Amino acid sequence: MTRSNGLSVRDIVVRYPAEGRSGRAAPPAVDGASFAVGRGEVLALLGPSGCGKSTLLRAVAGLEPLERGTVEWDGEDLAAVPTHRRGFGLMFQDGQLFAHRSVAENVAYGLRVQRLPRDRREARVADLLALVGLPGMGSRAVTSLSGGERQRVALARSLAPEPRMLLLDEPLSALDRELRVRLADELAALLRETGTTAILVTHDEEEAATIADRTIRMREGRLVA
To answer: Which residues form the ABC transporter domain (predicted)?
Structure first.
């Protein structure tokens, strides 16, 4: 835990409410996790479904309350900082695009929230679409895109506000194997080209090795390596 420049997670515990009437506390979904991610580093959280890795990512984002522990950025405790003010970009398995908006409108969403002037917003969107291999496709309806194209749009939207860290929750797992391998290479190159700090949640060993600089394994709520 020597990195202070970037993310520091210390001894966090996340526990969901117990089901039923037994009154007994549920076992923690995340149990005492500690790790750090330096600026510009890409870390993979690797493990089987149900091991707690997505819950851990959501806790870093501020989407799950901590029972114990701290999440810090550059030494600042984020406990009182809501998700939308943490400066973290989020990308999920299904992309969660706005079906009623065009490709460009989806990518520009975070820039509108930031109240970026229209000319700068349009230039940023064009640059990002070119970066993710979709130049000139801003006017397309997202419903007309392939699965791989939609994930590229989701990635561009996540990068648009220039987040200080990107949180990727199984972003390629819904794609077929051949496309997943190709996009993993593209994602790795893009993250390094942009110098993006990122955490990747995945169950795929090859994907973790391709995209991340470093991998931590997770099992039954605990980090094991």
So the answer is: 7-224
Question: Tens digit of pLDDT for each residue in 39-59?
Answer: 999 999 999 999 999 999 999
Radius of gyration of the chain (CA): 18
Taking CA atoms, 4 is separated from 39, 87, 89, 122, 151, in Å, by: 9, 17, 20, 35, 32
Provide the whole-model pTM.
0.89
CA gap 120, 140 in Å, rounded: 20
Distance CA 192, CA 158 (A): 15
DSSP H or E segment with residue 155: helix 147-159
Domain boundaries, the chain: 97-162
User: Tens digits of per-residue pLDDT, 198-212?
Assistant: 999 999 999 999 999
Q: Which residues pair with 150 in a beta bridge?
A: none
Q: Within a 10 A sphere around the Cβ of 120, how many other Cβ atoms?
A: 10
Secondary structure tally for the chain: helices H, strands E: 7, 10
Among 6, 16, 2, which Cα is nearest to 58's? 16
Find out whether 213 and 43 touch, Cβ atoms under 8 Å.
yes
E strand or H helix at 60:
helix 53-61
C-alpha 16/C-alpha 29 separation (Å) is 7
Nearest to 32 by CA among 15, 20, 54: 15
